[in-house]
Design brief:
Number of strands: 16
Oligomer: single chain
Structural class: alpha/beta
Bound molecules: zinc ion
Radius of gyration: 24 Å
Largest sheet: 7 strands, mixed
Strand content: 15-25%
Amino acid sequence: MPKQLFFLRQRPSFFLLIALVLMIAAGSAFPQTTAIRVGNLVDPSAGTIAKNQVILVKDSKIAEVGPKVNIPAGSEVIDLMNAWVMPGLMDAHTHITLDDLNMSTGLDVIFLRESSARRALRGLRTAQDILRAGFTVVRDVGNDANYAAVDIRDAIRKGWFIGPTVLTTGKIIAPFGGQTHRIPPEQGRFWLFEYIDADTVDEVRKAVRQNIYYGADAIKLVSDNSSFYYTEEEIRAAVEEAHAAGLAVSVHVMGGEAARNVILGGADSIEHGFDLSDELLQLMKEKGTWLVGTEFPQAHLEKLDPAGALGQAKEAAAKYIDRLRRAYKIGVKMAFGTDSVSNLPGKNRGDMMLDYLDMWDAAGVPPATTLKAMTTNAAQLLRIEKARGSIAKGMAADIIATPGNPLENIQVLRQVSFVMKDGKVVKPKN
Ligand SMILES: [Zn+2]
C-alpha cells in the first residue's frame, strides 16, 4: 500500500479520536455559553419584575434575555429560579487603597508611611471583597497614593486578578494644600503624593490634563477643604477640559457658596454635600447635577473619628439622613456612594458599604429608588450606561442574585447569593 494511503488502514476509533480532538479545539474557539434560569428578573430602571426568564451569556456579554430563549445544547445551566436577579451594584465614591483611616489623627500619616505598592496591594484585596458583596463597579475618587488605582484597574482589566470594574479619578485636584491642614512650611508639600495643587484656571486645566495623561477615567476636585474654595470659573475650566476628553467631573464640596460655584460651573456631581440647603438642592435639580451623598452611618463615624475631631457622630448621622431625605423629596438625581475608608471589626469593605442602606431606609427613600441609585443611575453618572448597569442584550454580564425582593426590602442586598462578573461566576449560588 502506498504511503499516502496510510490513514485508510487505521481503525475507525482512530478517526473518532481525531474528530473528538478537532471538536474540542473548535469548541474552545467558540464562546462559552451559560444559560441562567431566573425566577424573578429585576429591572431597576423601571422598578419592575419579570417572572421566569432566561439570560443567555456568551463570553463576557449578555447574548439574549427573555421568557422563551432557546438554550443551545452544551450550555452550562445555572438555576436561579428561587432568587431575585439584577445587574451588579455600583459605588460611585470609594477609596479602595485606604483602610483603617483615623480622621482624628489626620490623613497625612498615611501619605508619609505607605508606599504606592502597598496601597495597590491593599486596594486589590479590598476590590475583591467588594466584588463578592455584589458590587461589580466601583469608582475610586482619589487618595490612592501615586496613581495606585490606575494599576489596580489595569491588572484586573488584563485578567491577572479577579475584581470589579474599577474606574479611577487619579490624583485629587484641590486648592493649595490638598486635604491637609497647617503642615509646617519646612516639611515641604508632601501632600503632592496624593494631590495636585491647582489655584488658577490655568493650573486647574493643567491638573486635569495631567490626570488624563496618567490614566484617569474621571476627574475629582476637592473644593472647600479650607476657608478658600474654587470659583465658578475654576470649576468650569475643569469641566471643559474633562468633558472634552469624555470624562465626568466630581467635586467634594459641603454646601454654601462653594457648592453654588460647583453647580453653576457645570460639574457632573457633588460628593458629600452634607450642608446643602433646599435652595441649592433645587438648583442641582434644575442643572441636572448628581448628588453622591456618602451618608456615613453613626457607627462608621465613631470608628473613623474616635476623638470626635469632626463633631459628634450621632448629630452628624442625623444631619446626613435629613439631607438625604430632602434631596430625595426635591428630586435631585442620586447615585449611591459610600466613601467607606475604615472597616469595623468583623466586617469587610463590602459589609461596610452595604451598611449605608440603613441610611437610605432611615431617610424614607423607597427601595426601588435606592436600587436605581446603585445600578442604572450610577452607570449614567459614571458614563458606562451603554455597557453596564442593566440586564439586556449586548450588555456586560455583571449579574447578581438575592434570596428576597430588593424592591420590597433593600436590605436583602446584604445577602447577595450569586455574583457573575463579565460572564465569569465569582461567587457561585449558595
Ligand atoms: Zn471620599
